[in-house]
Amino acid sequence: MSRSFGQAPIDFRSMPPAVKWLLVVNAAVFALRAVVNGGVHAGPFDSLFGLVPQRFLFERWVWQAVTYLFIHNGFFHLLFNLFCIWMFGMPVEAQWGAKEFLKFYLVCGLGAAAASLALSPTSAVPVVGASGAVFGLLVAFAMLYPDAVVYLYFFLPVTARQMAIICGVIELFSAAAESGSGVARFAHLGGLATGYLYIRWWWLLKIRAKAWFKGAASRPPAAAARRGARASGAGPGRGPSEPPAASMDDVDRVLDKILACGIDSLSDEEKAVMRRYSERNKH
Question: What's this model's pTM, rounded to 2 decimal places?
Answer without folding.
Answer: 0.71
